[in-house]
Amino acid sequence: MEDWIIDLIKVVFIWVWCLLIAVVMTWVERRASAMMQDRLGPNRAGPFGLLQPLADGIKLFTKEEIIPEKAKKILYILGPALFAIPAFSAYAVVPFGDKIVIGGKEIILQVSDVNIGFLYVLAVGSMGVYGMVVGGWASNNKYSILGGLRSTAQLISYEVPMGLALLAVVLLYGTFSMREMVLAQQGTFLGFLPNWGIFKQPLGFLMFIVAAYAEAARVPFDLPEAESELVNGYHTEYGSMRLGLYLFGEYVNLGTLSGIMVSIYFGGWQLPYIDMSAFLGPVSYGIASFLVFFLKQAFFLFLFVWVRWTVPRFRYDQLMGLGWKSLIPLCLVNFFITALLVQLTV
């Protein structure tokens, strides 16, 4: 019963944490883009516009829900949920800290340390495309359908290089568990570098982050919702909180992808050259490990925003060509080199 309660608390915490990431990112996106474009950004709702996400939430909750007359109503309603739920679910295997000891009870800061964590991420993450396809098709709008078709080809195509990049990491660490991958990144590499995955898999990391941007359908890979071509893409016909679910799911997905990158390539909760557990108590160490993980995650979240307002959108043929002609061959080369090096060092 005690373990069940702890698991429930972790699930609620991650659910709330994902919502907070989505809320804060809506403000960061607007404020950062305003700074990059030399304008003010939101500055009416609260100091520095900090209450703008709350104002947006109230607006979405109170707007009238309109279902297009010729839409497939059941699928139209299911679309946003099919998109948002996988984004929340994938975070379950991301270790957001090491452990915390309370009353002699050791609590792992991870919802579930399954031994197929990497496979779980790919399986659950790939289901988000159903939300785009179902929502786009059920809307009975030509722009929405085109956005759904684009998302099908794009997200499925970029699942391949992402899986190959992660498979090289599995070969390197010899485990599918993301927590064990983080623990394997302790110490130093070559005597002076942090023993992080990025220094052992630089090409793999580059392939993964490009595939992650495509999976998140963010600029320069936001073809499923390209405003200049498709009005608003697969969620053109959505409003009120159904649109809010799509937007929340997008930002939660960014948090999940950032957490995966931190865990696999940047040492998770660990600091380079410093063992926090040596001078911190069991509770303070758990909190510190979570804060370190969050700071690393926040960097990648900001990187998503930075790239959005820096890099222009690809054409669709360029997008597909990059995935099939460049990323997949490079990921295969990286995979075979990793396999060879692992075999030679055994």
Write a structural description.
It is a single chain. Helix 2 crosses helix 11 and helix 3 runs antiparallel to helix 5 (128-138). The chain is built from 13 helices and four strands. It has one domain. The strands form two sheets. The protein has a two-stranded antiparallel ribbon with strand order 1-2. With 346 residues, the chain is mainly α. The mean pLDDT is 86. The radius of gyration is 21 Å and the shape is globular. A hairpin with a 3-residue loop joins strand 3 and strand 4 (193-194). It has helices spanning 2-36, 52-62, 73-90, 117-125, 128-138, 142-173, 178-183, 197-200, 202-215, 227-230, 240-265, 282-308, 316-345, and strands spanning 99-102, 105-108, 188-189, 193-194. The termini are far apart.
Question: How does the SSE layout of this entry go?
Answer:
Blueprint: H1 2-36, H2 52-62, H3 73-90, E1 99-102, E2 105-108, H4 117-125, H5 128-138, H6 142-173, H7 178-183, E3 188-189, E4 193-194, H8 197-200, H9 202-215, H10 227-230, H11 240-265, H12 282-308, H13 316-345
Antiparallel strand pairs: 1-2, 3-4
